[in-house]
Amino acid sequence: METIPCLILFSSLQILAFSSASPEHTLGTGSFLSVEEYEKPFLISPSNTFSFGFYETGDNAFSLSIWFTNTVEKTVVWAANSESPVNGHGSKLSFTQEGSLVLSDEKGFVVWDSKTMLGQDSRVALLDTGNLVITDSKGSVVWQSFDSPTDTLLPLQLLTKDKRLVSGYYSLYYGTDNVLRLIYNGPEISSPYWPNPSESIFDSGRTNYNSSRIGVLDNTGHFTSSDGLNIIASDSGLGINRRLTIDQDGNLRLYSLNKVEKSWIVTWEAMPQHCDVHGLCGRNSICEYSPGPRCSCLPGYEMADLENWSKGCQPMFTNNYGQAIGQVIFVEMRHVEFYGYDTGFNISVSLEDCEEFCSQQRSCVAYSYHAGSGYCYTKGMLYNGRKTQSITGSTYFKLPKTCNISEVKQHGLTCRHSHSTYEMHRQHGKWLYFYTCAAIFGGLELFFTTTACLFLRSKQNIPKSVMDGYELMTEHFRKFSYRELKEATGNFKEELGRGGSGVVYRGVLDRKKVVTVKRLTNATEAEEEFQSEISVIGRINHVNLVRTWGYCSEGKHKLLVYDYVENESLDKHLFESIDAKKLLRWNQRFTIALGTARGLAYLHHECLEWVVHCDVKPENILLTQDFEVKIADFGLAKLSKRDCSCLQLSHMRGTVGYMAPEWALNLPINAKVDVFSYGIVLLEIVMGARISSQTTTEGEKLDLTQIVEALKQVVACGDVTHIVDAKLHGQFNHLQAMEMVKISLSCIGERTKRPTMDEITKALMACGDEDKYADCTE
Ligand SMILES: *[C@@H]1O[C@H](CO)[C@@H](O)[C@H](O)[C@H]1NC(C)=O
Ligand SMILES: *[C@@H]1O[C@H](CO)[C@@H](O)[C@H](O)[C@H]1NC(C)=O
Ligand SMILES: *[C@@H]1O[C@H](CO)[C@@H](O)[C@H](O)[C@H]1NC(C)=O
Ligand SMILES: *[C@@H]1O[C@H](CO)[C@@H](O)[C@H](O)[C@H]1NC(C)=O
Ligand SMILES: *[C@@H]1O[C@H](CO)[C@@H](O)[C@H](O)[C@H]1NC(C)=O
Ligand SMILES: CC(=O)N[C@H]1CO[C@H](CO)[C@@H](O)[C@@H]1O
């Protein structure tokens, strides 16, 4: 008797499910779709251009996606859960009674959720733009798929500050310098490749002064960006379905839909020369055209993983040739070049000298040489290798003398002195197409020439300044006239110090307030750029950062006015303190370490605009009378053109300074460089000595890897005694010192594993309190 109502209920549910699954443009709460009915979209757009529902990504694997309805192969433009597809049985999409769009898997667990909770009257709709929207009872859009793009940007969808297009290891987004870039973010390296990183931003037709960071593709096939980038589809005009997609191969392409063939045509692409995309072939390998791009290993190297080029190649010899000079040979490959990771650079040297530099350097694995100019680059690591006839130089690889050259020759190798080029035979199985989609390739050559023209056209002049300065930004931040500051400093009489960004003078404002006035050297002349950076600095206010009172900008005269900090910078106390009075006691050191971490954490995480200091070192850590930390010189990186583009040549590498290795390489500069520098400073606080002055017992300079090894041993043995500053005579807190060493180790290690300043602050605070030492030891 009791089963009957149950059956009725069951069958009515079936009816409900069926009706909700028939495609609509807009649905109310309570609608749902089971994965088993994936062939029916959940929603279609009014003109049927787009569909939304379950998309089969693999065998029995589904993702919640939006795709073009009328293409031969479904072209997905958005996916909710591409990282974690759901099972083809039992998974379900529902627009809940609460007003959230929820995807649950076969066990009923929520895999993805729009988290809207707008109540019964909300609706979900798929618009003709391809935008999936959830509206509240008043009809206003509260959530939209356009806000969280995956690998595709559709016309009228805004690409803004915090959004990125991502495909595998490749992504497109606005950097902190306001420039829209393509970046390879792999497991081993991270490397921007578009716009061309060996050109200046301006030479690439971009600008970095406009901080709106916004880009949009319009309905005519025009993509415009606040950094000056202008892309025009080769078939520009109305009435065509388009998409801008970052493809699996790291290239950014603009596509148009051919409505007859229902297929896509490339109408623009960022990288006409495919091998210029970074990270394609992994370490120790090169990309070349034959005629499509292919990867191959270097002489003496073999593929690390036969299935996967992203793992690159590994040496077939043991890598200890650095030990004995004269025990190496060099093998030449013509027309080959590697981007980044230079350990040194020299102009106008002979081939012999260049080879000598590389032989002498333990870290050098190869060198590139251009016979005409005498350009010599020594290489520490071999990434982003490519071979094309347009490269005039050669790269010479270091191999141990003990390597059996005749064996290497069998692979088509010869030594440099025989003047033949390297050729690797295909039958050795070292070749592999990494790019199989021939259909797209066919289209590429057609567009090559149009693209080149578009690039030339897109260069544009920087508009003249329209804003004449922010007169009064905040209550305490103001513009000074040059005369005022000249008076305040007594015509720049008392010099307090000088550094990379400028000279610092003592000054007195209104006859009583002591300030420091910094005269910026090589500050940007561009008024707008200066104003926009200065307004960021003016808004920064934190107890561990030096307060900025104002600035002056009159033509060449660019000055900043800061608080005066009484006691000198940290380096004076740490490294030059012969007299016991100046010696920092342990608890003072710990407080300084924590204060510095807090100041940087504020810059990195809490500011209105995200600021990377770029020059963290003891000289920039000032101390008040009470030995409270005031970090100086932040926000200047951009003002003084001290940004990465000026520092790509790696003069600073080799000696251990405060600069993270990526400065010398061609990685994007982000907060991780500050974390690295902080790690060095932290170690110096513990040791009371410059890391760069550390030597072995034989007086040989230690390099970073050796220091890291030594620290690892200290941590493994659990005894910091012999590295803590001897001047403290054992008066220190063992647990705190150990924690500091551990933090330092993680900071100077591999860049993707470095902690954030926030995490460091928390870790230090956990050992700051005497009662909580237990937290320190983990
Ligand atoms: C910055 O870019 C935006 C968007 O492209 C534009 O509207 C704005 O005028 C630009 N600002 C300046 C100062 O050029
Ligand atoms: C190749 O290796 C990388 C890690 O180095 C891995 O993430 C990726 O999934 C691998 N690809 C294939 C096809 O195995
Ligand atoms: C360049 O080479 C010369 C000698 O040929 C050497 O004195 C100089 O230090 C080198 N410069 C760099 C930056 O390595
Ligand atoms: C080098 O390799 C060749 C060919 O494999 C072999 O005949 C020769 O004996 C090897 N020489 C040495 C010193 O191992
Ligand atoms: C400033 O620019 C001049 C000339 O362009 C250059 O010689 C000097 O090294 C630069 N100074 C700094 C600190 O970058
Ligand atoms: C080491 C040092 O410079 N200490 C000074 C810190 O500031 C106070 C007050 O200005 C001085 O008395 C100390 O000599």
Task: Describe this entry's structure for a reader.
- With 778 residues, the chain is α+β, with helices and mostly antiparallel strands.
- The chain has 6 domains: 3-148, Orthogonal Prism (Agglutinin, subunit A); 153-272, Agglutinin, subunit A (Orthogonal Prism); 312-419, Hepatocyte Growth Factor (3-Layer(bba) Sandwich); 424-472; 475-563, Phosphorylase Kinase, domain 1 (2-Layer Sandwich), CATH 3.30.200.20; 570-777, Transferase(Phosphotransferase) domain 1 (Transferase(Phosphotransferase), domain 1).
- α8 runs antiparallel to α11, α11 packs antiparallel against α13 and α13 runs antiparallel to α14.
- The radius of gyration is 30 Å and the shape is globular.
- Residues 1-21, 409-475 and 640-656 have low confidence and may be disordered.
- The structure holds 2-acetamido-2-deoxy-beta-D-glucopyranose (6 copies).
- One 2-acetamido-2-deoxy-beta-D-glucopyranose is lined by residues 500, 521-522.
Brief synopsis:
The chain is of the alpha+beta class and about 775 residues long.
- The CATH architecture assignment of the largest domain turns out to be Orthogonal Bundle
Distinct ligands: 2-acetamido-2-deoxy-beta-D-glucopyranose
Question: In the CATH scheme, what's the topology name of the largest domain?
Answer: Transferase(Phosphotransferase), domain 1
C-alpha geometry = globular
Count of DSSP H/I helices: 15
Gap from first CA to last CA: 63 Å
GO molecular function: ATP binding; protein serine kinase activity; protein serine/threonine kinase activity
Catalytic activity: L-threonyl-[protein] + ATP = O-phospho-L-threonyl-[protein] + ADP + H(+); L-seryl-[protein] + ATP = O-phospho-L-seryl-[protein] + ADP + H(+)
Pfam families: B_lectin, Pkinase, S_locus_glycop
Family: Belongs to the protein kinase superfamily. Ser/Thr protein kinase family.
